[in-house]
Amino acid sequence: MSEACHCDTGRPFDRCCGPILDGSRPAATALALMRSRYTAYVLRDEAYLLASWYPETRPERIDFGGARWTGLVVKDRTDGRAWDRAGSVGLVAHYEEDGEARVLQEVSYFIQEDQRWYYLEGVHGPFGAE
Question: Which of 31, 17, 47 is nearest to 88 (CA)?
Answer without folding.
Answer: 31
